[in-house]
Amino acid sequence: MANMHVDLSAAVWRTSSYSTAPEGLCVEVGDGVGGGVVPVRDSKRPSGPVITVTAAAWAPFLDGIKGTP
Known about the structure:
This protein is of the alpha+beta class. The chain has one helix spanning 55-66, and strands at 12-15, 27-31, 37-42, 50-54. It is flat and about 30 Å long. The termini are far apart.
């Protein structure tokens, strides 16, 4: 797997609708990055590590969460 360097300075972070705030399980997704990637981070650690996945992998991941075949 190649190590991708992604400029996150333009990212607009939003909390996932699947996050559960009372339990503290908050995931944020960065919009506006471009380059065909989706950055994901822990909202409790905004300066912590960011996972980037390809947009092509992100769509089936969301379908799986939603239970969509």
